[in-house]
Design a protein that fits this description.
heterodimer, A: 844 residues, B: 256 residues, alpha/beta, six-stranded mixed β-sheet, 10 strands, binds adenosine-5'-diphosphate
């Protein structure tokens, strides 16, 4: 039996190659996901180990509140603590963790950036082990910097050059005195600039406070011993932790943050495998149908049913194994692509190479092989049911079972699913527990009823061809309809990918429209100053801009964490009543915005309802790095999307709660004075922020499109990944077509004999492919748009207020699908056209 | 519309082969399926080709019908020299000037009987001559079967559809390779009667391969093929005269 299996694989080599290819793509995503997450882990390991070389214990503030973008959620420690710590027995060295943001201007005068990664500032510690000097010397006084290797490369500058820099909040002119290398080889994409130790204190700890201290133990003192000794000497708001635990903690945090990448890829791996499963199923179903006689003969000469089933499953095993083995190689490519994408889009640089470990290999092989065998199971069972007498019968095909039941089940599944989706999205808050299963049910129903839908839809799609091309078009249509089940399975593979693409398209387009609308509705600013992802607008920009003539008021976009006495973590923003009131359309439900200027807080309506707060409530909160304290709720504002925060506090409270160096200012909103000359004001703003290198000035409309542009990048990545499932679907069309051309060898010979031109023949096969592809595409886009619309309805209260359907994208998708059909037809066409008429006619 | 060059055939010959050879394989294993066949088929006549299995009957039909290229020799169909024509010209020639009936699998399963019959015209984009179509349909007696698909027709009906298709484009000549080989004697008689009538009433030229002396007797002339050569011929054959002639050279066939 094994011999028969292997012979069969060899005999239908090309067919199996295409099937194996489908397996390969799916498995490739699985393998790629594993490889990438291993690489991330290895990089993080290297990074933390290097960063903590020569460190045994870390002293940091105790946890007070939530970690936010602008705050670690821990109390900051006074720099003076350094002396106290140095005095603890067993401590060899104390290094305050002085770091902040730093950017230098490159040769072209613009800031040196690496994608969206942050620009970090450190200080040069001659005894430290994190950085090694490559060239020149370390900075020793203000105005001198050393620059990390890759950062220097990006800048186009050299040691000895002078350039502009923004370090901490200070703009200054600096001289590059040295080039350094980060021990781990990579800074994970961030740029790095080093100043001297003294300057670091003024630049990175202007308020005399730092996040933590790193302690090196004297020879012979262990981490744990040192930690215990240090812990005794600490004030109440500080704690000591061994570097081993510290690294573990950080790694977990970062690992979780990057975990989305793995989840994300796994989702696509699943989609690719699912689509691949269809193709595998179709291929085996057709091969079994074509080999009915051969298999019946096996039965006739005494093979048992399980043996016949094993022949087919054995083939699936071989194909699955080969496909997934190659898929592991493809997975490394996927991981390499993801690595490159991370580097150029996100600025994250993975230094580790792409490790393929035993687990990756094992999981990929098992998943690829099992999926293939599942896909082949039904055909194998059908093969086993072939009666020995079929060997003697003339007609080769296995009678197809009635489609009515299947169609009925499918259509009712779709109806129930649609009902669930509608029920899920028509409430105030989208009910994912209804929408998720509902959407799956609709899809499953569509797949099940596709053979029934094939007839009417293909009739319509093929109508123009039949009308213009006469018999060629008609033949193509009838061929596409000949085995509706097969056409439907082939089209379903395309349908799945395109449904996701169009649903995403609708959601994305609606997001863009809604964001633009929100910006227009909720923001009253005339200009917005921002620095792009990863880099904050320096804190000093706001006040500087506020002082310009023609500026009425400004508001900073600073987010930080707040923890309630119950332990709930909330998000907070800050500003002056005037700045916020002028720049944002804030509706107060009760109380007044002015309360924030009095040290009170105002609360988002939704948050107030959840927490049971009303205007006048006294609430206990830990704001930023401050300890729990009682605040008065001075007002409740109507929830809004742009200022989507739970709590707004005043400037004074912000000053106390979040040290300037730790503040992450995403942007400065600027409202012009009435009657101010906006053109002149813009020029003044540009002049003012020029020295801050990365800060750009946008007016309302530009800000709208920037806000929407983020959606485009994400959309681009998603589309690219979904395209893989489309590629698999194309393989499926090729496979089906090639097999049916093979099945119809005699008929093609006959048509050629009675005068069908080669061109007409290729036209016929191409139209068959195009109608099949369009069938899948129409079904997919219809489902996708439907789902997209449903999602928009469901998320209308979560920022997706407007529905926008990207008709042009959908038209492109449909046109591309037709083209995909043309492409898929190339190989089968070449085969058909080359057929020798006589041999074709003589074929059994 | 034919791209071939026109040479004048002998008066009365609709198709002509001159010194046709067809060799399969080479060296020791070479098979001379046709070994210097020269033959003319007259316009408006029905010719039967007989001979033992493997004698080259099908090969001759295929070469004459522009389905296969001979190793050497010349084929002229309706004044067009077939040799050296490109695929496009050959296809046009087959479509417009030739008709075929094979032993089996003559019909496209997805098309109805009517669509199968008009297939050559539809492929060419030529308008159907309704009167001619009606005449053919009535002759083959298929009017009530026109909307049926091949799998709804009996073997005899299928072959009648195939014959109707071969005639519908008024080809210069129809080649039929054992058209009744798979049929019972009654269906055979129907088909042969129909072919005969199309010669007598419409002046169609037909060449037909058969094994059966009774079938051969429907023809005006019978050619005997053996080992790739024409070894004999009879005009105005009867079943008996054909049978007698077959008996005559069967041993010779064995010796060769
Ligand atoms: N494609 C081919 N390849 C090799 N030999 C062939 C091929 N077709 C026919 N032959 C050989 O040519 C000879 C004539 O075949 P054919 O014309 O089919 O005979 P007939 O139709 O009279 O039975 C036979 O010996 C046959 O084996
Ligand atoms: Mg023959």
């Amino acid at each position: 039996m094994l011999r028969i299996t292997l012979k069969s694989v060899r005999g239908h080599f090309l067919r199996f190659l295409l099937t194996a290819f489908a397996v390969m793509v799916g498995t490739g995503f699985v393998a790629g996901t594993f490889v990438l997450s291993d690489s991330i882990r290895a990089t993080l390991d290297g990074l933390f180990n290097q960063a903590s070389k020569g460190v045994d214990v870390v002293v940091r503030g105790t946890e007070t509140g939530a970690a936010g973008q602008a705050s670690s959620g821990r109390a900051a420690l006074p720099l003076d603590l350094e002396k106290q710590l140095a005095a603890v027995p067993g401590v060899k060295r104390v290094v305050p963790d002085l770091q902040g943001t730093a950017l230098i201007a490159g040769k072209d005068g613009t800031a040196v950036r690496s994608g969206g990664a942050p620009g970090l500032g450190f200080y040069w510690d001659p005894q430290g082990q994190s950085f090694t000097l490559l060239d020149g010397r370390g900075p020793t006084k203000a105005g001198e910097v050393a620059v990390e290797k890759r950062t220097l490369e990006l800048s186009g500058l050299a040691v000895g050059d002078t350039t502009q820099a923004v370090i901490g909040d200070q703009r200054q002119s600096v001289t590059i005195v040295g080039e350094v290398k980060f021990g781990a080889g990579t800074t994970f994409g961030a740029t790095a600039v080093l100043v001297d130790a003294q300057s670091a204190r003024t630049l990175f700890a202007p308020d005399g406070r730092v996040g933590d201290f790193q302690l090196e133990a004297a020879d012979g003192t262990s981490e744990a011993t040192l930690r215990a000794a240090v812990a005794k000497a600490l004030p109440a708001d500080a704690e000591a932790i061994t570097v081993t635990d510290f690294n573990k903690e950080n790694q977990e945090t970062l690992g979780t943050a990057l975990g989305f990448i793995t989840t994300f890829l796994l989702v696509f791996a699943f989609i690719a495998l699912f689509v691949g499963g269809f193709i595998i199923y179709n291929t085996f179903a057709m091969i079994v149908a074509q080999r009915t006689r051969e298999l019946a003969l096996l039965r006739a000469v005494g093979a048992s049913r399980p043996q016949v089933r094993r022949v087919v499953l054995g083939e699936a095993f071989v194909v699955g194994l080969v496909g997934s083995a190659v898929g592991i190689g493809f997975g490394v490519l996927v991981a390499a692509g993801a690595k490159a994408a991370l580097r150029s889009f996100v600025g994250i640089d993975l230094s580790s190479d792409l490790p393929v470990d035993a687990l990756t290999v094992a999981v990929s092989l098992v998943i690829g092989t099992v999926v293939t065998m599942i896909g082949a199971y039904l055909p194998a069972r059908r093969a086993a049911r072939i009666a020995p007498v079929a060997a003697m019968r003339d007609d080769m095909s296995i009678p197809a079972k009635g489609l009515r039941l299947r169609g009925g089940l499918g259509l009712s599944g779709m109806a129930v699913g649609a009902g669930l989706v509608v029920a899920g999205v028509t409430r105030d808050d989208i009910a994912w527990q209804l929408v998720g299963p509902g959407a799956l049910l609709v899809k499953g129903g569509a797949i099940a009823s596709a053979p029934v839908l094939a007839r009417p839809v293909i009739r319509v799609v093929a109508a123009p061809f039949a009308a213009t091309l006469g018999v060629v078009g008609k033949l193509a249509r009838e061929n596409a309809l000949r085995v509706p089940r097969r056409t439907a399975t082939t089209a379903s593979a395309l349908m799945i990918g395109l449904a996701l693409i169009s649903a995403l398209g609708v959601v994305a387009q609606s997001t863009k429209a809604s964001v633009a609308d929100l910006v227009a509705q909720e923001i009253r600013s005339d200009f917005v100053l921002s620095a792009g992802g990863g880099v904050a607008v320096p804190t000093s920009v706001g006040p500087a801009v506020a002082a310009l003539p023609g500026v009425q008021s400004v508001a900073d976009a600073v987010g930080f964490g707040v923890r309630t006495s119950d332990g709930d973590d909330l998000g907070a923003s800050a500003g002056t009543a005037k700045g916020l009131g002028d720049n944002f359309d804030i509706t107060m439900r009760s109380g007044s915005l002015d309360a924030i200027d009095r040290g009170e807080i105002i609360v988002n309506g939704d948050t107030a309802a959840e927490q049971g707060w009303t205007t006048g409530s006294k609430v206990s909160l830990a704001v930023g790095a401050l300890a729990q304290k009682e605040y008065t709720v001075g007002g409740v504002f109507a929830p809004m999307q742009i200022l989507a925060t739970d709590i707004v506090v005043g400037e004074d409270l912000l000053e106390a709660a979040v040290p300037a160096a730790q503040r992450f200012n995403q942007g400065v909103f600027v409202k012009a004075a009435p009657g101010a000359d906006l053109t002149a004001l813009r020029a003044a703003l540009v002049g003012e922020v020029k020295e801050f290198l990365v800060v750009s000035v946008e007016d309302g409309e530009e800000f709208q499109s920037t806000a929407a542009a983020g959606v485009n990048i994400i959309l681009g990545i998603l589309y690219a990944l979904l395209l893989f499932s489309v590629v698999i679907a194309v393989l499926g069309i090729i496979n089906t077509l090639a097999l049916s051309v093979f099945e119809r060898t005699r008929e093609i010979g006959l048509l050629r004999a009675v005068g069908l031109r080669r061109r007409q023949l290729s036209g016929m096969i191409t139209i068959e492919a195009v109608t099949t592809a369009l069938f899948g595409a129409l079904l997919g886009t219809a489902l996708g748009v439907g789902l997209g619309v449903a999602l928009q309805r469901g998320l209308r209260n979560q920022g997706l207020e407007l529905l926008a359907i990207p008709w042009s994208t959908i038209l492109v998708v449909l046109a591309a699908s037709a083209f995909v059909g043309v492409l898929a037809a190339v190989l089968p066409t070449v085969r058909a056209v080359r057929l020798d008429i006589l041999k074709a006619i003589a074929t059994e | 519309m034919t791209d071939g060059h026109v040479t004048a055939g002998p008066a009365g010959a609709v198709a002509q082969a001159v010194d046709l050879t067809k060799v399969y394989g080479s060296g020791e294993a070479a098979v001379h399926a046709l070994d210097g066949v020269s033959v003319e088929f007259e316009r408006g006549r029905m010719t039967a080709i007989m001979g033992p299995s493997g004698s080259g009957k099908s090969t001759l039909m295929h070469c004459m019908a522009a389905l296969d290229t001979p190793t050497s020799g010349t084929v002229v169909i309706d004044g067009v020299t077939v040799n050296g024509l490109k695929d496009k010209a050959l296809t046009t020639l087959r479509r417009d000037r030739l008709g075929f009936v094979f032993q089996s699998f003559n019909l496209v399963p997805t098309l109805t009987a009517r669509e199968n019959i008009t297939l050559p015209l539809d492929i060419a984009g030529t308008k159907l001559d309704q009167a001619w179509f009606d005449t053919i349909i009535d002759t083959v007696n298929l009017r009530d079967r026109l909307t049926h698909r091949p799998n709804q027709l009996s073997g005899g009906q299928q072959q009648r559809v195939a014959c109707a298709r071969a005639l519908v484009s008024r080809p210069a000549i129809v080649f039929a390779d054992e058209p009744t080989g798979n049929l019972d004697s009654r269906s055979s008689a129907e088909i042969l009667g129909f072919l005969r009538r199309s010669v007598d009433e419409f002046g169609q030229s037909i060449v037909m391969v058969t094994h059966d002396p009774v079938s051969a007797a429907y023809a005006d002339r019978v050619l005997f093929l053996s080992d790739g050569r024409i070894v004999d011929e009879i005009t105005a054959p009867t079943a008996d005269s054909v049978l007698a002639r077959m008996r005559g050279f069967e041993p010779a066939g064995r010796q060769g």
